């Protein structure tokens, strides 16, 4: 799958806008809650999800960046009839892993806002919770990478992915 087919309908101008936002926060204090570079040679995949309670709809937002912070691809996906809020972030994490795999990336840092999901993915034991099947799928796909690091990111550090998901949820379309 090529990067173009995964980009938002905003096209190049949208990617440039996201790049501009990321450049503004890259040089800030590394001990802050804001976004940080990945190691050289790694790609960073940020994911977040927005949930509409009234319609049981989820939208995940995924942004792929190189170690310089340049946005290489982004994707949103809207899902209807999501059974619980608990599954929302697990689905978004699974989509982030799938996107990295589909783009042929081998060294990735996957960063998301749900500490619970990140801890479950890092735990070597089988997850028997309501999101266990998503966690299992994430771990299964993880073997396609030479190295994959899962990291928790606070909302401020994951703002771009969250905003991407929130805006797409309002529009109600996939991209």
Automatic annotation (TrEMBL):
The family database entries (Pfam families) matched by this protein are listed as: RVT_3
- Residue ranges of domain RNase H type-1 in the record: 46-167
In its UniProt record, a GO molecular function of this protein is:
RNA-DNA hybrid ribonuclease activity
What PANTHER family does the record point to? BNAC02G40300D PROTEIN, RNASE H TYPE-1 DOMAIN-CONTAINING PROTEIN
Indicate what this protein is called per its UniProt record: RNase H type-1 domain-containing protein
What organism is the protein native to?
A: Gossypium raimondii (Peruvian cotton)
């Amino acid at each position: 799958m090529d990067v173009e087919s995964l980009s938002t309908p905003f096209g190049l101008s949208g990617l440039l806008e996201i790049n501009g936002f990321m450049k503004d926060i890259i040089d800030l204090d590394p001990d802050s809650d804001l976004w940080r570079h990945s190691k050289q040679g790694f790609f960073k995949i940020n994911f977040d999800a927005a949930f509409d309670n009234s319609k049981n709809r989820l939208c995940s937002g995924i942004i792929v960046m190189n170690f310089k912070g340049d946005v290489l691809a982004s994707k949103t996906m809207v899902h209807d009839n999501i059974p619980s809020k608990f599954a929302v972030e697990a689905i978004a994490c699974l989509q982030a892993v799938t996107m990295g795999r589909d783009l042929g990336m081998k060294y990735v840092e996957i960063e998301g806002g749900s500490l619970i999901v990140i801890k479950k993915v890092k735990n070597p034991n089988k997850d028997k919770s309501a999101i266990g099947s998503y966690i299992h799928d994430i771990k299964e796909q993880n073997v396609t990478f030479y190295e994959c690091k899962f990291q928790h990111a606070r909302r401020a550090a994951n703002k771009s992915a969250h905003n991407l998901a929130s805006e797409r949820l309002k529009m109600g379309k996939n991209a």
